[in-house]
Amino acid sequence: MTQSASVSCVAARNSAVEVREHPNGVLPSVRRLHFVCPLCHSELAVSETSYHCEDCGKTFNVHAGIPDFRVFPDPYLDLREDRDRTEIVLAGLEKYDLKGLLDHYWKYSDITPENLRSKFVQSALRGEERARLAVETLKSKVARPSGGTRILEIGSGTGNFLAAAIGECDVIVGTDIAMRWLHVSRRRFMDMGISPPPLVCCCAEHLPFADGAFDVLAATSTLEFVSDQRKVLSEAFRVLSAEGTVYLNTLNRYSLAMDPYSHLWGVGFVPRRWQSKYVYWRNRSIYKARLLSFNELKRSTRSLFGSPEIALPDISPDILRQFSRFRQMQIRIYRSLKNIRPFSSVLRYFGPGWEVLLKKGRL
Question: Is the entire prediction scored with pTM above 0.85?
Answer without folding.
Answer: yes
